[in-house]
Amino acid sequence: FALQEYVGMRSWGYQGHFANVLAAWIVHFFFWGLICQVMWHRFRGTIQRANLTYILTRVAPVSLLLSVLEEALWVACFPSLPLGHHHWGYLRRLQFYLDSELIDNLVIFWVNFFLFRGIEYYQRYRQEEYAAVRLEAELTAAQLRALRMQLNPHFLFNTLNNISSLIHSDPEAADQMLERMSSMFRMTLDRGDAQTIPLGDEIDFVQLYLSIQQQRFPETVHHYIAVSPEVRDALVPTMILQPIVENAYVHGVSKTAGHAFVGIEAQSYSGQLRICVRNSGQGLGPGHPFKNGRERVGIPNVKARLNLQYGASHQFTLEEVSDGEVQAILLLPLSYPAGLNGA
Fold this sequence. Notes:
By secondary structure, the protein is an alpha+beta fold. It contains nine helices and seven strands; from the N terminus they run H-H-H-H-H-E-H-E-E-H-E-E-H-H-E-E.
């Protein structure tokens, strides 16, 4: 603005220093800066709440008053302006600048008024958006906790059934199962409300469960676990594998006459965590609960938790890969605790 005015002055034949013109514009916007500071810090709430009637009856007169007041202060600071008319009195100089600058001052006021109003709308929108996201996260966490609370009694009931089947025929084995079950529940309590844990911790939990099942099927069921070292620290939902392994036992291994196997594999796959639980058995025939919808806790619980936690960024499949052999495959986002990168 100062450069533009200085060039205009020179073209009109007026003599003056550029520094004086620059100082005049600096003071002009300094005054408006002070006015806008007061508007922002003292009247921000009023600006946000103002309706059309208030704007027309209150804000519009104030905008005119402030525009005149700012111009009056500015003219008082520069008695030598306008150039070539230093003999004019204060009121005449003020009238001159009001005629030429009043509209500009009103534009500055209203641009800032609606800018502050827009900022408030944006901040309110972001706050509402944050509140909605936080509420959704809290709802998801509550749903996940409810699903885990549903799963723990189910697991306890099935494990106690296993122990009761051995307590008379093999008390020593039943005692070992009780100790291992106690260790499993201690691990569950230690985890608290954590929704995700390292895969290695989940594997430790599943190994305890497998050791309990080994008491029921001595020398007939083979277990194997193959987890790539780079994914042992990858995060997975708490207690996500035990229902799948239990499903493999209840609907696969227990239906098999002779030797059977249950295997768990985990590795990185195309930037995701791939977990596969395989077992021998009778396959996914028409009578399988997964086929006819009679499975109420195990697999539906797993699917519900994965949907809540990962949405569309995961895959879960349960399929028969050969005669009687079934595999459950989880593809999950590959993430690690803070400070770890999976290296």
